[in-house]
């Protein structure tokens, strides 16, 4: 019964039974009232026989009482209370029930109390005579016949309710299968076929349900499948384009590397015009080589998973400083290694070196481009949950466009000719450690990046 229709069958049966039980309570109360009124009516008929003949034989009087199912009958006519028929009462009267002014809740309460009282009791019942034959009629009867009749009636009602609930649930079950289950299975079938071949447009669902909610679901699924199919085709085209670009970049890098060797000889030329134009040519070729290398690096299928060891971060920072000082030459840029000697973090030393190198190089290039003396500081600290490496400079800050696309490949470049791949690759490497690379500050006073590496275990 794990299916929708099966559960609906069970729930329908349960709810119909609950509804029948709610009907059962007033029904059993009504049955009790009718039973007692019938006893009163039969007792009244027996009393009328006595009125017709004041002298009845004892045997006939006992037979009238037995047929009426009572012990005695009291009839009030013209304000006179008369004991019309009587017989010995086996025990004292336990309760008296007046049916003349009894409300619904009183009748329900008395019926339930009688139904759950198994002992026989002698009870007095008071009512109004039928056909205006008096002011009041009162009888004394045993409670056991009443309880047995109520029990038999209740069992028949419950049995009928159960049959009705089963029949109702069965027809609702069939209706649900036709109206809901089959259309849902059809939608699931479309989803399964589409999942098997998402690039095949023939697997996209065609909305045809007449149920408003299901049709809305089919239309939403159709839109999702259409967009996903288009995205997959676009992704495939981009992958093919990326492969072509990587091949072109590889060959172009080799050509440009050879061109760099020729520019060394051009710089030694005695022609003043050649000597003046050579640096610009060298810079252009250098930028082109750098772009090719960045494109090839980013175009790899994925970066290798980091090999995590406990790394002294000051030693990594010192390697970065030493490498960048070779490129500073005569520029007035100072690089300071302020990482504590005892700061050790769990990281891949080669990948963290690349991240720190990218950040320091970006800062250095920004300071050189500004034409003003600058300072780059590499600092580090340890928090409760992570290690933090801070790369801070006092340069001009990042422009708004660069901040908006900071980690977006080919869009987050700051300097002219930059590809914007350095920060995208750096963020990918840091996230491979389970950490994050964030820009914490930028403006006229400078820019600060933070490398955050988690201290907890990381699952790759």
TrEMBL record:
It catalyses: ATP + protein L-histidine = ADP + protein N-phospho-L-histidine. The keyword Zinc does not apply. One of its GO terms (molecular function) is phosphorelay sensor kinase activity. The keyword Transmembrane applies. It is an enzyme of class 2 (transferase). Keywords: ATP-binding, Coiled coil, Kinase, Membrane, Nucleotide-binding, Phosphoprotein, Transferase, Transmembrane, Transmembrane helix, Two-component regulatory system. Residues 247-457 form the Histidine kinase domain. Residues 214-241 form a coiled coil. Its EC number is 2.7.13.3. It comes from the Bacteria. The chain crosses the membrane at residues 6-29, 153-176. PANTHER family: PEROXIDE STRESS-ACTIVATED HISTIDINE KINASE MAK3 (PTHR43065:SF10), SENSOR HISTIDINE KINASE (PTHR43065). This is histidine kinase.
């Amino acid at each position: 019964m794990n299916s929708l229709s099966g559960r609906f069958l069970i729930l329908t049966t349960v709810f119909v039974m609950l509804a029948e039980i709610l009907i059962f309570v007033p029904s059993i109360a009504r049955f009790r009232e009718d039973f007692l009124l019938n006893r009163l009516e039969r007792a009244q008929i027996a009393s009328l026989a006595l009125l017709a003949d004041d002298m009845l034989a004892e045997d006939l009087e006992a037979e009238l009482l037995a047929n009426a199912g009572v012990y005695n009958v009291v009839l009030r006519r013209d304000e006179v209370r008369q004991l019309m028929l009587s017989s010995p009462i086996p025990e004292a009267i336990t309760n008296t029930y007046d049916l003349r002014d009894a409300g619904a809740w009183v009748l329900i309460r008395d019926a339930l109390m009688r139904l759950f009282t198994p002992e026989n009791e002698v009870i007095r019942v008071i009512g109004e005579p039928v056909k205006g034959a008096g002011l009041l009629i009162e009888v004394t009867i045993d409670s056991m016949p009443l309880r047995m009749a109520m029990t038999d009636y209740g069992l028949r009602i419950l049995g009928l309710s159960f049959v009705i609930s089963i029949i109702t649930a069965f027809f609702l079950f069939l209706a649900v299968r036709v109206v809901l289950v089959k259309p849902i299975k059809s939608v699931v079938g479309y989803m399964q076929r589409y999942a098997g071949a998402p690039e095949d447009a023939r697997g996209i669902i065609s909305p045809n349900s007449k149920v408003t909610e299901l049709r809305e679901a089919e239309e939403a699924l159709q839109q999702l499948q259409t967009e996903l199919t288009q995205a997959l085709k676009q992704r495939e085209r981009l992958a093919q384009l990326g492969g072509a670009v990587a091949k072109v970049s590889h060959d172009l890098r080799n050509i440009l590397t050879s061109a760099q060797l020729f520019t060394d000889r051009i710089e030694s030329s005695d022609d003043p015009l050649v000597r003046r134009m050579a640096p610009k040519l060298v810079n252009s070729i250098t930028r082109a080589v750098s772009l090719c290398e960045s494109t090839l690096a980013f175009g790899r299928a994925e970066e290798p998973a980091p090999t995590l060891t406990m790394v002294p971060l000051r030693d990594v920072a010192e390697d970065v400083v030493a490498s960048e000082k070779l490129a500073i030459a005569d520029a007035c840029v100072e690089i300071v290694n302020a990482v504590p000697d005892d700061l050790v973090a769990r990281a891949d030393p080669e990948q963290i070196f690349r991240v720190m190198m990218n950040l320091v190089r970006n800062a250095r290039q920004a300071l050189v481009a500004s034409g003003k003396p600058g300072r780059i500081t590499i600092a580090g600290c340890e928090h409760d949950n992570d290690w933090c490496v801070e790369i801070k400079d006092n340069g001009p800050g990042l422009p708004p466009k660069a901040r908006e696309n900071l980690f977006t490949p080919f869009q987050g470049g700051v300097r002219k000719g930059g590809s914007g791949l350095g920060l995208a690759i750096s963020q990918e490497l840091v996230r491979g450690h389970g950490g994050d690379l964030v820009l914490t500050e930028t403006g006229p006073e400078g820019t600060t990046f933070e490398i955050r590496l988690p201290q907890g275990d990381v699952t790759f």
